[in-house]
Design a protein that fits this description.
The protein is α/β, with parallel strands linked by helices. It is about 30% helix and about 30% strand. The chain is built from 9 helices and 14 strands. The strands form 3 sheets. A 6-stranded mixed β-sheet has the order 6-7-8-3-9-10, with helices on both faces. The two termini are about 35 Å apart.
């Protein structure tokens, strides 16, 4: 549905996007992942035709992207903007009418989505009264009010509390179940891992890894151990068979130098800590992200 072929964009002496190519199939959730300044927003703005690529091609449904294709796309930009003197209903309705929807269609969608986020009481309030998280929900509704085929979200989870982030994630999954194609950028790996079928990791304007989440994770092998325990596990990082450790509040993800040394690793730790859970796992997206970005520095 959306395809980029060898797309480049530079600003003065900065190569913001370098030879990026990827394809997003109809009905999938595609994540563009990377640290701040990696080129995620620039890539999205080129898809939205807000800025033009220096070279390369962008396709929509097999034909070169044109201005009229925006009618089929909903967009939540990273730089949030809201008309502070409008009511919530007027703000959403304005953008719905710009996309050719009738007031009846818009009102039905407003009612549905305000109810989904449990914020019906804000319908006639001024947008200047909204908190940052509330404002983000309203702008998300605005992005999808015209029932677009493709929804593009730039850092949609930024600034949201965990409950609101989960609610937004569930909304994205709901839209996907209705056949929508969703592209979103994020540096929050946990959210991407939960909902994306395909991803591209981008750093310094270059695509580092691209493909299905399952294939990418499997390609990193079986050297990861998820370990929950009580006691002092600080010695684990210094063990000969351990390559790296990612620390979480209640557990560790341990990467071994060789997957065949998992039994040896268990023997080394079993009498030194109280093990609650020991499981061989494929690496998390967080681990893949850190490893991939680290190798590019």
């Amino acid at each position: 549905m959306i395809e980029l072929k060898r797309v480049n964009k530079s600003y003065e002496n900065v190569e913001a996007v370098q030879n990026i190519s990827f394809k997003v199939q109809s009905g999938e959730i595609f994540g563009i992942l990377g640290p701040n300044g990696a080129g995620k927003s620039t890539t999205i703005k080129m898809i939205m035709d807000i800025i033009k690529p220096d070279n390369g091609e962008i396709f929509f449904n097999g034909a070169k992207l044109k201005e009229s294709d925006n009618e089929h796309i909903g967009y939540l930009p990273e730089e949030r903007g809201i008309y502070k003197k409008s009511t919530v209903t007027d703000f959403i309705s304005y953008f719905g009418m710009l996309k050719g929807k009738t007031m009846h269609q818009i009102e039905l969608e407003i009612e549905k989505w305000l109810a989904y986020f449990d914020i019906q009481e804000w319908r006639y309030r001024k947008t200047e009264e909204l908190s940052k998280g509330m404002s983000q929900k309203i702008q998300f509704i605005t992005a999808i009010i015209h029932d677009p085929d493709i929804i593009i979200l730039d850092e949609p989870f930024s600034g949201l509390d965990p409950i609101s982030a989960d609610k937004l994630r569930d909304a994205i999954v709901l839209l996907k179940s209705k056949g929508k194609t969703i592209i979103f950028s994020t540096h929050v790996m946990e959210q991407a891992e939960k909902i994306c079928s395909h991803i591209m990791i981008i750093n310094k304007g270059k695509s580092i890894i691209s493909g299905s989440v399952a294939d990418i994770k499997n390609s990193f092998g079986d050297r990861m151990i998820s370990l929950e325990f009580d006691g002092d596990g600080s010695f684990i990082e210094s063990l000969d068979m351990v390559d790296s450790v990612i620390k979480y509040p209640r557990y560790l993800e341990v990467e071994l130098k060789d997957g065949d040394r998992a039994d040896e690793f268990l023997k080394e730790i079993v009498n030194r800590i109280s093990i609650k859970k020991y499981e061989r796992i494929v690496p998390s997206l967080h681990k893949i992200f850190v490893s991939s970005i680290g190798e590019e520095k």
